Amino acid sequence: MSEQNGKGIFVAGVVVGGMLGALGALLAAPRTGKDTRDILKKTAQALPELTEDLTTTLQLKADQLSESGKRNWEETLTRLKESLAAGIEATQLEKPTPKPTIPDSVSESTSRHLS
After folding, report:
1. Looking at the predicted structure, is the pLDDT value of residue 106 above 60?
2. Model pTM above 0.70
């Protein structure tokens, strides 16, 4: 789960880093103003497609993470239910130790002697 999320973040970082690096290279490159404007225009035209690709990738990763979390939650809930059932069963199987009973004849004679 964590590995898949890390890959998505890595891909997003590569795309954003690439875009920033390309912009820096364009601004620092020794080109005429017209050439630089043409390149910037083409880059700007490509941005919506890049943004859509990045959004799609991030959405897929979010869906995968959500499904993984849901699966983990369901597994945890199942284990918890099984543990509770086992605990209830164990307490029901455990027989309480009977309390010693005092016969009525002994308790009557004891009370007479104590009075």
Report:
1. no
2. no
Structure tokens, 102: 């005092």
Distances from the Cα of 112 to the Cα of 15, 32, 48, 70, 104, angstroms: 96, 121, 101, 71, 12
Instruction: Give the mean pLDDT of 8-12.
Output: 77
- 50 with 19: CB under 8 angstroms? yes
Model confidence band, residue 21 (pLDDT cutoffs 50, 70, 90):
confident
Query: Are the CB atoms for 68 and 8 separated by under 8 Å?
Result: no
Q: Which of 49, 10, 113 is nearest to 2 (CA)?
A: 10
What are the C-alpha distances in Å from 67 to residues 53, 71, 77? 21, 6, 15
At residue 1, the pLDDT reads 46
How far is the first Cα of the chain from the last one, in angstroms, to the nearest whole number? 77
Q: Is the dihedral of CA 108, 109, 114, 115 positive or negative?
A: positive
Provide the residue ranges of all domains of the chain, joining segments of one domain with +: 2-90
